[in-house]
Amino acid sequence: MSDLHSINEAINRRAGRKLLPSIAVSLSLVVLVWATLAFQRGIFAVLLYIAMGLGLREMVRAFSQKDSQLSRIDFLVAGAAIFISTWFGGIEGLALSTAISIPLLLTHLLMRGPDGFVHSATSTVWILIYLPFLSGFLILLAKPENGLYQVMTFVILVGCNDTFGYLVGVLLGKHPLAPKISPKKSIEGFVGSVIFTMIGGALTFHYWLHLDWWIGVLVGLFIVFTATSGDLVESAMKRDLSLKDMGTLLPGHGGALDRLDSVLFSAPALWLALELVRNFL
Fold first, then answer.
1. Which 3 state secondary structure label does DSSP give 88?
2. Which Pfam families match (predicted)?
């Protein structure tokens, strides 16, 4: 037992976070997503809104350290409008509700005066696009009749990227991928993400979406790029804000935003890939 404990501690030190709680949280989230989609997709939308709201709370609190004058309530109202519009109006609803929300939020921001307006306005637009808008693509994936399989395909692809990038990086990582942004992310881990996400794409596209396996390989490669980019963007935000994690909500993961980082950039990517396949292949 002492040997296993020593090995676990060594892995935790190398990875920068606790491995077993991280795995437990990830599996619990997968089961929760599957259950809501299998029994009532509307509940999935509510679950997604709660996750998005937790992310908003973390971002507003973090950005407020840089003197941004932000209102979490404003973002929650705008996020609810965007989610409802997306659920009933599809991509047009998502685009229109986001376009309307931006000037409304900026106009409300004017009521606080001109001091720091540009900084707060920039933060407002960034947060609105980063969380409610990008999260809306998960609703677009979930709403169709095969929404369960589309979202679970998405979960598998992002999970393969994160899990195998993490494991290969911990076991074999020696060469930093982006040392100034995320020192623990390695080139070896990135290669592991590429290999296993392409395999996951081939399997899920063939067996769940009933599409050619090679399409899944290409989409898997695309998801590795978007998920890694999302992870690095969130890491850059944390470094700029002098934070280790955006929060402490999820054991082994940090805050809600630390779990959503790769998801937010990848949801539009998978939605776009599936739309292209439906229309051109």
1. helix
2. CTP_transf_1
Tell me the C-alpha distance between 233 and 277, whole Å: 28
How many Å apart are CA 181 and CA 174, to the nearest integer?
16
Question: Rounded CA gap, 43 and 144, in Å?
Answer: 15
**Environment class of 272 (CB within 10 Å of its CB; exposed 0-12, middle 13-18, buried 19+):** middle
Q: How many CB atoms lie within 10 A of CB 242?
A: 9
CA distance 258 to 230: 10
Question: Helix 117-128 and helix 72-110: axis angle, to 10°?
Answer: 140
Question: 113-121 long-range CB contacts below 8 Å, 24 or more apart?
Answer: 116/67, 116/68, 116/69, 119/66, 119/67, 119/68, 120/68, 120/69, 120/70
Q: Which two tokens stand for residue 160?
A: 């393969």
CA 231 to CA 41: how far, in whole Å?
Answer: 27
Q: What is the pLDDT along the chain (281 residues), one digit of tens a residue?
A: 444 455 445 555 555 555 566 666 667 778 888 999 988 889 999 999 999 999 999 999 888 877 777 889 999 999 999 999 999 999 999 999 999 999 999 999 998 888 889 989 999 999 999 999 999 999 999 999 999 999 999 999 999 998 899 889 988 888 999 888 988 889 999 999 999 999 999 999 999 999 999 999 999 999 999 999 999 998 898 888 877 766 555 554 567 787 788 899 999 999 999 999 999 88
Q: State the Cα torsion 119-123-124-130 to the nearest 10°.
A: 160
Domain boundaries, the chain: 1-38+146-281, 40-143
| Global pTM value | 0.89
